[in-house]
Amino acid sequence: MAEWKFLPFAQTALKNLFSAPVTTGYPFEPAQYPDRMRGHVSIQIENCISCGLCARSCPPGALTVDRKAGTWTINRFDCVQCGNCVNVCPKKCLSIVPGYTQPDVAKHSDTFTRPQQPAQAARPGAKPVNDAAKCVYCTLCAKKCPQEAITVDRAAKSWTLDAEKCVGCGLCAASCPKKCITMQ
Questions:
Q1: What mean pLDDT value characterizes the chain?
Q2: Chain segment 18-41, per-residue pLDDT in tens
Q3: What is the Cα–Cα distance from 99 to 128, expressed in whole angstroms?
Q4: Is the CB of residue 69 less than 8 Å from the CB of residue 159?
Q5: Which terms are listed as keywords in the entry (predicted)?
Q6: Residue 181 carries which DSSP code?
Q7: Which residue of 22, 92, 111, 182 shows the fewest CB atoms closer than 10 Å?
């Protein structure tokens, strides 16, 4: 009686023995990733302006940006590859690339440092300028500024820019309904 229970297993084993293998010849053949695979976040650090929008939009808090040091850090273990950081990046220096990150025995973070540039050539002509004749002082530019570099006073009809805080991301110009802000 016990032999009859063993036969269905033997039949499956024999079928698998004579069928083609399911696995690929890894590492000799490159991995084929599924169409809907999320991949992992990649950065072109030379294009990053350290605005911090990616870190603010990251649900698990896997990203940190240090503007003064010019660094961008991702904790790969905490990242869920949702793509929020890629969607909000004003300079489009973030992307999700196919493939898995290399496994490791401990949690670690990847830190990327922006290359140093001469002071005058760091961001030529990247500061917003407001045309007061067109401005309606709606405060949208100040609300969109990731560094809070713009101050708008509707009562006094004043628009001021803190040039030290401004990173030149251009979100203020993009959000202006009257198109009175230009990047110069």
A1: 85
A2: 887 776 676 677 777 777 778 899
A3: 38
A4: no
A5: 4Fe-4S, Iron, Iron-sulfur, Metal-binding
A6: E
A7: 22
Alpha-carbon span 15 to 171, nearest angstrom: 62
Domains of the chain from N-terminus onward: 36-113 (3.30.70.3270), 128-183 (3.30.70.20)
- Look up residue 128 and give its two tokens: 């917003």
What pTM was computed for the model?
A: 0.66
Give the C-alpha distances (Å, rounded to integers) separating 73 from 23, 54, 173. 35, 11, 28
Nearest to 79 by CA among 108, 54, 58: 58
Q: What is the C-alpha separation between 109 and 28, in angstroms, rounded?
A: 29
Single-letter amino acid code for the residue at 148:
E
152 contacts 139 by C-beta, under 8 angstroms: yes
